Amino acid sequence: MGFFKSVVVTTAPRAAILVRLLVGAMFLSEGIQKFFSQTLGVGHFAKIGILCPEITAPFVGGIEIVGGILTVSGMQC
Are 31 and 63 within 8 A, CB to CB? Predict the structure, then answer.
């Protein structure tokens, strides 16, 4: 209940909540795709020449998933 409450109960304007939810959902979906899609994950990283794509693609995907969750929940640094 705490996570849901932190998303819904806020003093931010409605537009800010909408942007937060959309950006967080985008980061979350892109991060998940890095793990499950060869064309968007390791294969893409190898194609564009990033070193050690087997390591960097899951790392970037994990960061995007965590960042998306934190953005949706309204957490700030």
Answer: yes
Contact between 59 and 35 under an 8 Å Cβ cutoff? The reply is no
Q: Convert 44-73 to b/e letters by CB count within 10 Å (16 or more is b).
A: bbbeeeeeebeebbbebbeebbebbeebbb
pLDDT score for 8:
60
d(CA 1, CA 16) in angstroms, rounded, equals 22
pLDDT of the residue at 58: 92
How many domains does the structure of the chain reveal?
A: 1
Report, as ranges of residue numbers, the positions in the chain whose pLDDT lies below 50: none
Strands (E), 1-77: none
User: In terms of residue numbers, what domain contains 60?
Assistant: 2-73
Q: Token pair for residue 10?
A: 């806020």
